[in-house]
Every structure is written in C-alpha cells, then in structure tokens.
Design brief:
By secondary structure, the protein is α/β, with parallel strands linked by helices. It has eight helices and ten strands. The strands form two sheets. It has a six-stranded mixed β-sheet. It has a four-stranded parallel β-sheet with strand order 5-4-3-6, with helices on both faces. Strand 3, helix 2 and strand 4 form a beta-alpha-beta unit. Helix 1 packs across helix 2 and helix 2 runs parallel beside helix 3. The longest helix is centred in the middle third of the chain and has 19 residues. The chain binds pyridoxal-5'-phosphate. The site of pyridoxal-5'-phosphate has 20 residues, from helix 2 and helix 6.
Length: 298
C-alpha cells in the first residue's frame, strides 16, 4: 500500500509496439506515461520540483505554488500540492483544451486563463502566447509571495527524468536499444533521459522531435524558442513531424496497440517510425482523454 497518490507517480510500464512495427524490421519501446495519477509524464517533474524545493528551503510549508502550464504540469502540481498542503495557481493559455482546466480545478487548483495573442488560433499555442502566460505567472507570483515552479528552468525537471524515467527505461529494456526520440516542450524529458542513456550507453542516438512549422496543433511543446534545459551536445538530430502525421500515428496507436494517447505521443511514434529499422525508445506523454474536445478523435 502507498501512503499517497504522489507515491504512485512513476514506475510506468515499457511496452513493445510490436503490432505497429510489424514488417518494418525494428522495434518501438514506448514508455506509458499516461498511466501516472494525472495521466501524463509531467506528474514526475511536479513531484521532483516540489520535493527539491522543500528540501532546499525555497518552498516553505503552506506557501502558494504558481506555474505556467499547458495543463499537464499543472495537473501534476495540483496533485502534489493537494497532498503536500500547498495552495496552487495554474496559469494557462486559452489555446489549450478545456478539459485540462476542468481537471486542475477538480484537483483543487485555482486556474487563471490567459487570452492568446491577437490572430492566434485556438488549439495552436505559440511562443508569443506563452510569453503572455509567462508575464501573468510572474505577476501572480510577485503579488502572492509565491514559489514559482518554473518548469523551463528548475533543475527538478531535468532531475525527474535523469533520476527516474531514464533509469527505469534502461532497466526495463535491459539497456538494449539504439535510439531515443521525444517531442520537446521544456526539453526536460529529452535532456534527463538522454543524459541517463548516454552515460551508460554512449552510442545511443538521441533525437528531438519538433513540429514542421511554428503553427501546429501538437499541444505541450514545439514553441520555437530557446530551451535552457536542452543540452544541444546530447542532440544527434531533429525529426520534424506534421500535424497530420502526429494525428494518424495517435489514431493508429489507439486502434492497433490499444494505447489511447494525445497529439505529442502520436508525434513521437511517427518520429520513431522514421528511424526504422532500429530499436527506438519513445514516450507516450499523456492520455487521449485530454483531447476529447478536439478533433483528434472522430
Ligand atoms: C502532452 C505533452 N507532450 C510533451 C511535452 C513536452 O515534455 P517536456 O517538457 O519534458 O519537453 C509536454 C510538456 O508539457 C506535454 O504536456
């Protein structure tokens, strides 16, 4: 028995997508992060950032936590803050799907929605939309004397994946794979896993997955901006994926493998397929349930 939902974060299964790769002469090993309590991999960084900040004294008992989120980090923080007794304010662009705000509110968070920049399309959150969310997050943090989780910069983001996600994959795969690819938002998953993999297996090739243009529908990343956490020395290449390719891969993943995931997981699988024949590790970032209000599902 576990003492709380926070202790249920991590230790997710690694699954061989053998049906999807049949006849291609390679394998895709998919880390099922949608099985975390908040249905995404971002639960991991929420736990790590709060634990690290409590340990180093930057987060005091009962102090409010504020974060900019596309929904998943906010959901993770709502869970961690509910259990650890911190009020939590999530600041999110209106361009992200509505079920995310509802879920965070249900978990006790205060959700502040920020309008997109003029002319922006709903479902397409750009770097300039994110800049508006950032300004609002900074304002609220100052006003309330809060702790800013700061997922784009806090080392807990990298550490969550360097200490846990990466080593879990190494253990589950027997350290037998050729390549790793992941769609970058903050780049924390990519950087933490790539560091853990390449320290043990220097020959593993690590690819950042990106949308094929600045206007795209792959929520959670592809912001076309500098990522402080992403160590370019670990990047062996970039794989560009279109919205259409991400959507068809997410649908095929559901139909063929019984794995119900979102746009960015589809992008990861589409990218992994371009690396065949090889054994490729990738991440199933969040649940398809988070996109029921979009046309990802017909
Ligand atoms: C659905 C989804 N996919 C991918 C990512 C990108 O992950 P990372 O920030 O570790 O690069 C995020 C981050 O918020 C996300 O919510």
């Amino acid at each position: 028995m576990l003492p709380s939902a926070v202790a249920a974060i991590g230790s997710t299964p690694l699954v061989d997508l053998a049906r999807l790769t049949r006849g291609r002469g390679g394998r895709i090993l998919a880390k099922l992060e949608y099985l975390n309590p908040g249905f995404s991999k971002k639960d991991r960084i929420a736990r790590q950032i709060v634990e690290d900040a409590e340990a180093d004294g930057s987060l005091a008992p009962g102090q409010t936590v504020v974060e900019l989120t596309s929904g998943n980090t906010g959901t993770g923080l709502a869970i961690v803050c509910a259990v650890t007794g911190h009020p939590f304010v999530a600041v999110m662009s209106r361009g992200n799907s509505a079920e995310r705000a509802r879920m965070m509110r249900a978990l006790g968070a205060e959700v502040v929605l920020v309008d997109q920049s003029p002319g922006a399309a709903a479902g397409q959150v750009s770097g300039s939309d994110l800049e508006l969310v950032e300004q609002e997050a900074q304002r609220i943090t100052r006003e309330r004397g809060a702790f800013r989780a700061d997922q784009f910069r806090h080392p807990g983001n990298f550490r969550a994946h360097y200490l846990h996600t990466g080593p879990e994959i190494l253990e589950q795969s027997g350290a037998r794979f050729d390549a790793f690819c992941d769609f970058a938002g903050t780049g924390g998953t990519f950087a933490g896993c790539a560091a853990a993999f390449q320290e043990r297996m220097p020959q593993v090739r690590c690819y950042v997955v990106e949308p094929d243009g600045p206007h795209h529908r792959i929520q959670g990343g592809g912001y076309s901006m500098e990522l402080p956490m992403l160590d370019r020395a670990r990047v062996d290449g970039t794989i560009r994926v279109s919205d259409g390719e991400a959507i068809s891969a997410a649908r095929e993943l559901a139909r063929v493998e019984g794995i119900f995931a979102g746009f960015s997981s589809g992008a990861n699988v589409a990218a992994a397929l371009t690396l065949m024949p090889a054994v490729v590790v990738t991440v199933i970032n969040d649940s398809g349930l988070k996109y029921l209000s979009t046309d990802l599902w017909e």
